[in-house]
Design a protein that fits this description.
Distance between the termini: 53 Å
GO molecular function: cyclic-guanylate-specific phosphodiesterase activity
Largest sheet: 8 strands, mixed, barrel
Protein name: EAL domain-containing protein
Strand order of the largest sheet: 6-7-9-10-11-12-13-14
Radius of gyration: 42 Å
Keywords: Membrane, Transmembrane, Transmembrane helix
Number of domains: 3
Number of strands: 14
CATH topology of the largest domain: TIM Barrel
Shape: elongated
CATH architecture of the largest domain: Alpha-Beta Barrel
InterPro entries: Cyclic-di-GMP_PDE-like, EAL_dom, EAL_sf, GGDEF_dom, Nucleotide_cyclase, Rev_trsase/Diguanyl_cyclase
Strand content: 5-15%
Oligomer: single chain
CATH class of the largest domain: Alpha Beta
C-alpha cells in the first residue's frame, strides 16, 4: 500500500488526538478495508458458532418449558438456519463487510427477540425468570464477538437489552425484587459490554495507527535510501548515469551476455572543440550544451535499449547489446546524428562546420578476450582518438589493424614530440590516504596531455603510442622531475609516486637519471616511489631487472601497480620484494558478490603473508572504505579520498584550511 503525505499527516494527528474523540474517517475506512477479509471470516465463523449454540440451547427449552418446547425449538431452528444461510449468501456474493455486519447484527437481534416472544407465553414463569439471563449472550455477542462498529454494537445490544428489560418488568410473572434484579442485571451487562467494546475498538484503532506510522516510517526510509542510491549513481549536471552506475550496469549486461547471443558494445563520445566552445561562450553555455546533448543521448539510448552515462567532462559513454560490428556502427552513427540534429551553434571551429558535433569511438566484446569494462573503454578511447584525427564529427569502431588508427598513432606521435616544449603535457596528483584515519600519506603523480586545440587526450590513448615510439622516455623523465620538484617545494606527504613503463626500465642509464633528478632537487630517495605496472614480465628483460635492483640500492621505493590484472604478478612477488603492492580497483568493485569479496580477502592474505604493504585503489564509496578498514588495509586511493588535481589546487586547499 502506497502511503501519501496526506495519510502520514492524518496518522500523526490521530495519534496525538485524545482517545475519546472520534476516529479519523479516512483512517478508519482504511482499517476496515485492511481487516476486511479477517472480518468476513470472523462474522461467518462467529454466526456459524452462534447458530450452533443457539440451536443446542433448545435442549434447555425442552427441559424447562415443556408446554412450548416444540414452538421454541422450531423458532430456534428457523431463525438460526435462516440467518446462517443469509450470512453465507451475503459473504459469497462479495458484499461489503459493512453489509455483512448489518446482517449479523440483525441475526442477533432477531434471534434474541424471536425466542423471547415465543417463551413469554409459557406457564413455567419461574423457570423463565431463571433462564432469562440467556439474553446476556446476545448482548455480549453484539458487543464483543463480531468487531462491529461501536454504533452498530450499541444499537443491536441496546435493542436486545430494551426487549429483555421490558419483558422482565412488564410481562414476566415474578415478584418485584426478582424483576428488578434481572432488569438491573441486563442494564449492567449492556453498560459493561459496551465499555469493553469501546475499549477494544479503540485499541484496534490505535494499534492500526501505530502500525501505519511504522509502515510510513519504513516507506520514508526506503524512499530516502532509493534517493541516495539515485544521487550516488547520477551525474548532477546532466542527470545521466555516472561512472559508478555505468560500471554496475556493465556487470549486469555481462550476466545477461552469458545467456544470449548478443555482444556488448561500448561507445565513448567526446564533444568536438568543446574547450573553445566554453572559452568563447562561457561555462554556463557549456553546461547548457552538455545538458542538451545528454537529453539527446538519453532518447537515442532508449530507442536502442541502451544505457547512456556521463564519463567525465565532455565525454559520454553508452553501453548497448548489439548483434555485431555493423549493428554497433549503426547505433554509434545514430548518436552522432542525434547531436547534429540539435544544431547547437559553435562559433569557433577550424573546419567549415558551425554546429556542435561529437567524435565517437566504439569497441565490442570478443570471444578471444576477457570481458572487462576497463579494456573495452581503452579500446573505445583509442578508436575515439582515431575519429578525432580523421577530422572529427565521425565515429570509429576499434580494430587493432585498422589503417585510420595507425594514422592516428602517427599523428599522435608527432604531437608527443612537441608535448613538453609546447606545454601540452601536465601533471596532476591524487592523494594516497591512511585507510583508518584518512590522513594523507603521499600522492601519486599522473600525466595529462592535451591536443593543440586544448581537448584532453586520455592516458589510455597516448601512453601506448608513447611507449611504441619511444617518446615515453622523455615524458616519463619530465613527469618524475616535476613530481620531485613539487615534492620538495610544496610537500606532498611522505612519498610521491610515478608510473614507469618497461621501456623506461630497459634504458641503461635510467637509474643514473633518477639519481641526477634527486640530487638536483635535494630530495631523499625514499620519498620517491616508482610504480611498475603488472603488464609484462620485466624479469625477462635483464637490463630492467638490474635497473630495479640499482634503484632499490639507491633507496628509491619500488611499487607494484594494478596487481591482479596481468599475468606476471605472482612470479614478480616470488622474485622481488616490493615496498607496496597496489591491488587493482576492479577487485574492490567486485566485492558486491560473495565470490568477489572472497577473492579480495585471499589476495590481501597472500600479500601480507609475503610481507608486502597493501594499497587498494578505486575507493569510491563509504561502504568500500569501511570494508577495507574491517580488513585491516593500511592505505587506500580513490575518488572518495581525493581526485587527481593540479598542484595549484592542492596549494589552494591548504591555504583555505589554514585560514
Amino acid at each position: 500500500m502506497q502511503l501519501t503525505e496526506d495519510v502520514a499527516q492524518r496518522v500523526t494527528e490521530a495519534i496525538s488526538r485524545p482517545p475519546w474523540k472520534s476516529a479519523d474517517p479516512t483512517l478508519f475506512a482504511m482499517l476496515l478495508h485492511k481487516n476486511a477479509d479477517q472480518n468476513r471470516k470472523v462474522v461467518r465463523w462467529g454466526i456459524a458458532a452462534a447458530v450452533l449454540s443457539y440451536i443446542c440451547y433448545g435442549a434447555f427449552d425442552w427441559f424447562l418449558f415443556p408446554d412450548l418446547a416444540d414452538r421454541l425449538i422450531l423458532t430456534r431452528l428457523t431463525l438460526g438456519l435462516t440467518f446462517l444461510v443469509l450470512v453465507e449468501l451475503v459473504a459469497r456474493r462479495g458484499f461489503a463487510v459493512t453489509t455483512l455486519h448489518y446482517v449479523a447484527a440483525l441475526a442477533i437481534v432477531a434471534g434474541a427477540i424471536g425466542w423471547l416472544l415465543s417463551a413469554l407465553g409459557t406457564t413455567h414463569q419461574e423457570a423463565l425468570s431463571h433462564f432469562m439471563i440467556f439474553g446476556t449472550v446476545f448482548i455480549l455477542g453484539a458487543n464483543l464477538f463480531f468487531n462491529f462498529r461501536l454504533w452498530l454494537s450499541a444499537l443491536s445490544s441496546a435493542t436486545v437489552t430494551v426487549a429483555f428489560v421490558s419483558a422482565t418488568l412488564f410481562v414476566l410473572q415474578a415478584d418485584f425484587a426478582t424483576r428488578l434484579v434481572l432488569a438491573t442485571y441486563f442494564a449492567n451487562c449492556l453498560v459493561l459490554s459496551l465499555y469493553l467494546s469501546w475499549r477494544l475498538s479503540m485499541e484496534r484503532y490505535q494499534t492500526f495507527l501505530h502500525a501505519l506510522q511504522a509502515q510510513i516510517q519504513e516507506q520514508v526510509a526506503f524512499e530516502n535510501g532509493q534517493k541516495l542510491i539515485e544521487i550516488a549513481d547520477t551525474d548532477p549536471l546532466t542527470g545521466l548515469k555516472n561512472r559508478r552506475a555505468i560500471t554496475r550496469e556493465f556487470a549486469e549486461l555481462c550476466r545477461e551476455w552469458a545467456t544470449d547471443n548478443d555482444e556488448i558494445g561500448v561507445i565513448l563520445m567526446d564533444v568536438d572543440y568543446f574547450k573553445r566552445f566554453n572559452d568563447r561562450l562561457g561555462h554556463q553555455a557549456g553546461d547548457d550544451c552538455l545538458i542538451e546533448l545528454a537529453r539527446a543521448f538519453d532518447e537515442t539510448a532508449a530507442s536502442n535499449h541502451a544505457i547512456a552515462g556521463r564519463y567525465g567532462g565532455e565525454e559520454f559513454v553508452v553501453l548497448c547489446k548489439v548483434a555485431g560490428r555493423d549493428h554497433l556502427r549503426e547505433v554509434t552513427h545514430q548518436f552522432c546524428r542525434a547531436v547534429e540534429n540539435l544544431k547547437i551553434s559553435h562559433p569557433d571551429r577550424d573546419d567549415k562546420l558551425n554546429i556542435v558535433t561529437i567524435s565517437a569511438g566504439a569497441s565490442l566484446t570478443r570471444a578471444d578476450q576477457s570481458v572487462e569494462l576497463r579494456i573495452l573503454l581503452q579500446e573505445a578511447d583509442r578508436a575515439l582518438y582515431a575519429s578525432k584525427f580523421s577530422g572529427r564529427a565521425t565515429s570509429t569502431i576499434y580494430d587493432a589493424q585498422a589503417i585510420d588508427q595507425k594514422r592516428a598513432s602517427q599523428n599522435l606521435s608527432e604531437l608527443l614530440k612537441h608535448a613538453v616544449a609546447e606545454r601540452l603535457v601536465s601533471v596532476v596528483y591524487q592523494p594516497i590516504c591512511d585507510a583508518t584515519s584518512g590522513q594523507v600519506l603521499g600522492h601519486e603523480s599522473l600525466m595529462r596531455l592535451r591536443d593543440f586545440d586544448g581537448s584532453a587526450i586520455s592516458p589510455s590513448v597516448f601512453i601506448p603510442v608513447a611507449e611504441q615510439t619511444g617518446g615515453i622516455e622523455e615524458l616519463g623523465m619530465w613527469l618524475i622531475d616535476r613530481a620531485c620538484g613539487d615534492m620538495v617545494e610544496h610537500g606532498l606527504g611522505a612519498v610521491v609516486s610515478a608510473n614507469v613503463s618497461v621501456v623506461q626500465l630497459k634504458a641503461p642509464n635510467f637509474p643514473l637519471h633518477i639519481a641526477e633528478i634527486l640530487g638536483r632537487h635535494g630530495m631523499a630517495p625514499q620519498k620517491l616511489a616508482l610504480e611498475v605496472t603488472e603488464g609484462s614480465d620485466i624479469f625477462l628483460e635483464a637490463q630492467a631487472a638490474r635497473n630495479i635492483e640499482q634503484l632499490r640500492n639507491l633507496g628509491v621505493q619500488i611499487w607494484l601497480d594494478d596487481f591482479g590484472t596481468g599475468f606476471a604478478g605472482l612470479a614478480w612477488l616470488r622474485r622481488f620484494k616490493f615496498d607496496v603492492v597496489k591491488i587493482d580497483r576492479s577487485f574492490l568493485h567486485d566485492c558486491q558478490t560473495i565470490r568477489g569479496l572472497s577473492l579480495l580477502q585471499d589476495m590481501v592474505r597472500l600479500l601480507r603473508n609475503l610481507g608486502h604493504t597493501v594499497l587498494v585503489e578505486g575507493v569510491e564509496t563509504k561502504e568500500q572504505q569501511n570494508l577495507l578498514q574491517h580488513m585491516g588495509i593500511q592505505s587506500v586511493q580513490g575518488f572518495l579520498t581525493g581526485r587527481p588535481v593540479p598542484i595549484d589546487e592542492i596549494k589552494q586547499a591548504r591555504r583555505e584550511l589554514v585560514a
